Amino acid sequence: MLPIAIGIADKKHRIMKFKKPSLIVQIFLGMFLGIIVGYFWKDFAPSLHILSDIFMRLIKMIIAPLVFSVLVVGVAKVGDFKSVGRIGIKTLLYFTAAAIVSLLLGLMLVNFFEPGKTMTLELPPVDATVGIEASKGFDAKNFIEHVIPSSVAEAMAKNEILPIVIFALFFGVAAASIGQKGKVVVDFFDSVSHIMFKITNYVMAFAPMGVFGALAAVVAKQGIGVLKGYVFLIGTFYLGLLLFVFVVLFLICFFMKIKFFKLLSYIKEPILLAFSTASSEAAMPKTIESLERFGCGNRIISFVLPLGYSFNLDGSMMYMTFATVFIAQAYGIEMTTSQQITMLLILLVTSKGVAGIPRASLVVIAGTLSHFNIPVAGLLLLLGIDQILDMGRSATNVVGNAVATAVVSKWEGELHMHRTDPDIDKLKL
The pTM is what? Predict the structure, then answer.
């Protein structure tokens, strides 16, 4: 009887130790069920968008305190403006180089495949209303107002990352400069950052439901049929994103001796989260945690990653040149090589002036179209599939910022790919 009893007890123990599916499996399941529900229950599915709204609000709730606490601790460890300036120059040089490459790649692909000429689309009237205010181009006054906060409380309330970064830089350097008294404050924010990571894990438990609601609502509203007329355009753009990730970013990592595919394995959850929600912002807290586990220096992550969300959106940059020339092709407008180079330089600058604006890519594209006398109404060709394109853009932005952080960490000698952080490992879902 004893062996039987032991066998039964062991079986019960195995049942009790049932392993919860990983977050990435849960998100995939949420995506699959969202598409099914959105397709078969079109009347009910749009109301499920409330699940996505709840998740996105939870994410926005934690971004400001997480970014501020992590950045203050990171900068305080750097110690002085000289070190911050050195890291800042390296970071911005990398961002500028990556932006130029992504813009050029989008330009080359759209000229090679010419989707605007190949696709047969019903063109909107040139005077059609788009509902997106065109960007006025680079405005130094507006840019400064966006970068330097008049109130850090207001910047945090609006989740404007760049102003939070600026204030945190001053705060962190000042805290480090006053010695022991500042150390008390730095230790406090170090504890806050660990608490915020724990809250992040609580929020991430709701991610599959948010993904489910978002996709169910999108499929119900737009239908899968919206893809039929745009297969070539979507395929060409996603080809560009794949080339950027697996050729450009891979080569950067190869020459920097960074294990690219190992990095991807660490950030696979943030990538999938950004793709399924079409928001790189939603993936930011999880990206910070993943990069620490990969071995990037904490102070580098806290400095580079928040800046990347304003200055290093590689997928969005590629989309700007791609979409602008696509619309010109659709209306039969030939852009000369000099015009396209001018457009690239304009986008390189103006894209920095609208960081934090919802659907910023479309806003910048609208301003660029106006500059070259291309009908802004052409944006209506893209609005129907913008969510689908934005999914790819957001995922690419996450990969681009992760590589940027790894590269700067390598430059600063703070990339330890075999390091394990027990505090971070405990937070892993």
Answer: 0.79
